[in-house]
Queue: 2 jobs
Job 1
Amino acid sequence: MKAFIFKAAAFFCGLLATTMTFAQTTQTIKMAVPTALTGPVAQYGDMHRAGVRLAVEQVNEAGGILGKKIELVELDDACEPKQSPAVANKVVNDGIKFVLGHLCSGAFKPAAQIYNENDVLMVTSTATTDELSTYGYKLFFRTIGKDGQQGPAAGEYIVKKAKPKKLAIIHDKQTYGQGVATQVRKTVESLGMKPTIFEAINRGDTDYSAMITKMKQEGIDFVYYGGYHPELIVLLKQAKDLALNATWMGPEGAAVPDVKGESAEGLLVTLPPDFSKEPTNAKITEAFKAKNQDPSGAFMMTSYAAVQVLTDAIKGANSEDPFKVADYLHHNKFKTVLGEIEFTPQGDWSTARFDIFVWHKDATKTLAP
Amino acid sequence: MDFPQFLQQLINGLSLGAIYALIAIGYTMVYGIIGMINFAHGEIYMIGAYIGLITITAIGTMFGCPAWLLIVSALAMAILVTCCYGWAVERFAYRPLRGSPRLVPLISAIGMSIFLQNYIAVLQTTRDLSVPELITGHLFSFTMDGFNVSMSNSRALILIVTIALMATVTIYIRSTRMGRACRACSQDIRMAGLLGIDVNKVISFTFIVGAFLAAVGGVLIGLSINKINPFIGFVAGIKAFTAAVIGGIGSIPGAMLGGALLGLIETFASAFLPTEYKDIVAFSLLILILLIRPSGLLGRPEVEKV
């Protein structure tokens, strides 16, 4: 009986091995899309996936790259640094060589280290923390600006255009929120304005009225919030309830359709320029609309561009070797929906910029004056 | 800090503490009678919030009722369904383990908590769902020394409902047959059983009362912050549990006092210090209180019941 079990086990192992080799020789290039399919910020994940999916669909319709189709493997890290290493290990174990993600800076940080050690090429179209490009990863690229560009854009707007009497800067203690808030603080301080309040809130709390009362007491008339939308929605509502007369501003992580209603009217956000308005992108904008998706979503176009640069580089390098592709990425310019892109030696988009938008109660946005 | 600011922070702190207290009563009653911490209680609160939202969405889209009717029916439905959950959790996860060592039901409770959280996450997705803004406006809003002091209607509702419910629970426990049975069980559950009290019924009742209050808390907080997700139960549960311990676990007035105190401490800590210190202050105080009074502010010293 025992012998039989062993034989059966061996047989199944053999069977498994054959299927594995079969999978490896099929004619696709696998690209992992680690993003948030669940969790409080899954809305960003929707934009990220929509951009990537459309771009890949169009590449595949046009015959793929190097004679192969692209196969997307969507994975969920829920934007949690605790879950992302598991996702990264899965990518590595499955032998996937290209990653389009992760979605969130905090979750990307531990995962990026694993990719770097295992020679996986990463192109993120959403994670903006400066730290990611400071570790000297040779296979790291991003098609979005970084907080070192976003923070100063916000800071300059605050000092030069908004000119508040008293400024408060708050953040959610996360890699992304704290990073961008610190950048804003540095910028305003270098321009000679000192924030009256610089504090942190807890992610997931539901009552910020004590802090808002304190802001009111201090006479704060401008609040910069570094963080994601779930907390911002509560902050905005409670600020309105307590009649705090202040203008609010947030980074691109605050701009999702859920931010709406009276309390969201007039919120300022820094976002990549609205590339869906570019006449050259009309076809892609139409394709998004045909799928009932909003092409002006913050990460739609940047994610589309991530696929563009990656596929162009694989074609250009005529190789699936991540190092050859990275080399090609470093030394060439790419025509994308974001315009012409060039990468710095650290993998950042050299000419990225952020615009300031005013958010409205129906979750639409217009360029700030 | 001047008086108007102080007044505003007092209002903030009390309405925050009210929710803690509502949930804390569930912890404290269960502990008082069977001596276990029902870690799934925070999830019961979360389920209450979800049932409330589902009811509002269902009725609101069907008939277009006035807001107050929506709120009342959301509360009624949430209480009904959540009480069933409270009862069922006890029946399936705790009652079969009643004779076992203390750690066993505790682990079962943690398991139940994870089960309920994930069960809702699968059914309702983990995204934030937005609750319609049914309660708007302010109960009062006046300017004193150039500072505007206000209380929104949603916060006022939380405070009023909480106080009313607590008074009801206190009177009920003090002066009804079932309340007397509860008190008897909390003093000595075996003796109470020998004297003819249906202990199982009393325990079920405790879980139902706890779920009742948690459901009300869930619906009210949903209406107040206008968004819910499956993880709200965890933070709220931990805070309420802390409130129950501060007040003296097992004591109902203690849970109320503990809730109010925790809300006020958090609020004033964040008023005087940078906000990031508020939990440090609150939990340092918890340790301090327990060092001085190990059984909490209003708790009676534990007589070892094994």
Job 2
Amino acid sequence: MAENSSQSKGNIGKIKGFIDEQKESPLMDSLKRRWYRFSKNPLSKLGLAIALISIFLAIFGEYVVPHPAHAGAYRDYPNRFIEPFQSWTYPLGTDSYGRCVLTRTILGFRYSIRMAVVVLSLVVPTGVVVGLVAGYHKDTWIDTLLMRTSDIFIAVPPLVLALSITAMLEPDPMYAMLAVSLMWWPWFARITYNNVSSLVNEEFVKSAEIMGDSKTHIMFFELLPNCTGPILTKLTLDVGWVIIIGASLSFVGLGAQPPTPDLGTMVAEGSRLLPTWWWISIFPAVAISFIILGFNLLGDGIQDAFEEVGAGS
Amino acid sequence: MLEKRYIAILILGTLLISTVAFSGCVDPDDDEERPTLLRMGFAWPTDIDPAIGTDKSSAVAFTNFYDPLVFPTQEGVEPWIAEDWDVSEDAMTWTFHLRDDVTFHSGNEMTAEDVMFSMERLVTIGEGFAHMFEPYIDIDESEVVDDYTVRFKLTEPRGVFLPSLVRLYIVDKEEVLDNAVEDADFVYEPWGNDLGRGYLIENSAGTGPYNVYEAVIEDHFYGERFEDYWGPMAENAPDEFRMLALGEAGTERTMFGAEELEITSEWLEHHTVVDIAETFDGKLGAYPEGGALYGMMHTQKEPLDCIYVRKAISYAFDYESQIDDIFPESELMEGILPILLGGAVEQDMPTTDHEKAMEYLEQSQYYPDIVENPEDYEIEASWTGAVPATEHVALMITSDLEDIGLEARSRRYEWGALIDAMYEKETSPHICIVWVSADYPEAGSLLNARYHSRNARSWQQNEWLEDDDIDELIDDALREPDMDERFALYEEVQNELFEMYPSLFGHDQYSKHAYQPYVTWPEAEDPLEYSIPSNGYSVNVRNIEVLPHGER
């Protein structure tokens, strides 16, 4: 009996310990469960791998490319138009200047990823704050002012707005990024607004208000954490879209300027040489698709992870 | 009800069978009847009004839709609408005797009234080639002597007046005034109307071998052969001359392959033109037009305001590679002007020598700061997006300057934006890479356009020399009636300019094209014999032959 009693005490202790452990790291638990949901789909893992490779190449590209000097105003006319898969020196061939297409394609990741990083780091905070404030003040003049302003920006076709802005200023990657940012924030404002306005009458918000928490606290510490899933999903999916818009601006000469290795510019330059010298545009185009595919798959995975967890909790 | 269905099926079946049966049938005789076309690509804008346009495509339009008073040749000019002329001793009175067998596309006879009106219209509108006449033509004292004689009075002697007349295109006074509009954006006094400016945007009113019958701005001009043309025409000159707004390599390649384009446009890169010709068994042709590629250096902008920096750049540039690798159809410049122009002289041109470039750089007022902090002296080499080959030159300049320790970047401009930038001294780039061709086949044409202060605010100049001595020398030369004397003065100007190192002197330009095997184009096939060193005159459709369809 005493043995049984001590055994049961031991089991209870284990259970208590387990519960305590659970209480100590709810974040870890949440992350583990999300990772489990995420990793169930092999395509999500593929997307993550592609995204990590893209980021790695964007940061360390110059250390892995075979011909770093080919990033600049390098020319080697005797070696131009070398076909791909003919030599180890130029595995993906050379362009009309004699520059290594593999080198320039890899270095092109930097501009594309930088474009996405800069644009999203500008638009996500802006859009999220606007959406939070408007959503929390739903049906007030603040809501009307902020959301109608964002509607005006949404009404203009994104590429047209970006083209107009960069055409007015001089062709420069920084202006291109600013132009894309200007048209992109309303989408994050909209998605945050939709989520916040559906949560604003929930009990946990009312409780916080009764407890006397400040509006800032309620918006950023009660509401925002509940919108993380959709925002993260959109952010990941938008990486691809921002890269496409950036490449489009470069394609028409309003983004990165030669000789900067930029995938959109390389596609534009190579398109003049199709179909005879197809590799000059095809490989950069494949690289753009590679990045976009990766981030889209990653976005889908993140969406799965947050949806499942959200439903469970 | 059933009968109706049968009838419907019967009709549909008949239509289907007819369509299939006759779609592949072409009467062999039709080949003989089909008009021969010469379709050529051009960079827009094309102004077909001879009082407005000046660029290459406009000049080609004038050559084929109009006739000038005199026609340019390799040696100078030859009689054309004017059969003969007299000049007074002071070179201020020029009398022209006109042909009496010339008719306009409208059917009107061409007379001295039309010639006088053409000059008056040109200088009144004051655009296009007006700058070649407006400062010194005395319209009030000029007169129509009789139906076939016209006399122009000048306010000062002008030796280049005669060669300048290759840009006086004769318009049909009656047709133009019949279509002039009084309530227009541009109204000219004392005429009180637009002098046909609106009408001539889409119509030709000339005597040339082709008459515009369809115009869609920014897309095409179609001209049909003028059956009553007075002048020489090749036996198989095409029935139609079509100017198409093109320039995109892929489009031209596809059209050329489908025989929807006879001659590719001028600004395609050399390897693209060669590829098109080789892929589709076409011909390759190139001809000089009295033009050259210049890297125009802004002589009033830091650090190019120092002659030693300009000299350093001149010796840093890779001239040989420019020819061998980018423009193999062209030739290195032998002087500061295209050598084919009358009065152009050979000079001791700079060659690539980086040691010498460094020596000059060390003599610069900006040395050593310019190499220690090159980012403070960044030099912008601008190029035109519509002409991809200029990007190669810009990058070549960039890397050559980096080799001598300077910092440079290439910048792409759209053509319109570049023209706007070059209009103001403050906005003009450091270096502009632009081809400029002579308007008449003499050195004076380019000296005036390229280096005289009066033309500083134009796309033909980025140097901003604004040098009174140079202006005076050019004016003296242009005034000189005696050709030998004039050429001697041209030489003096060229030597003075050479010492100032105002430009990178790239190459004597050869316009290159791929064209169909059923086209014979003397100017492109034998340029030394036939080409004319004057912008637009080597695309002279009078001389081009297109084999009839049945003989290809």
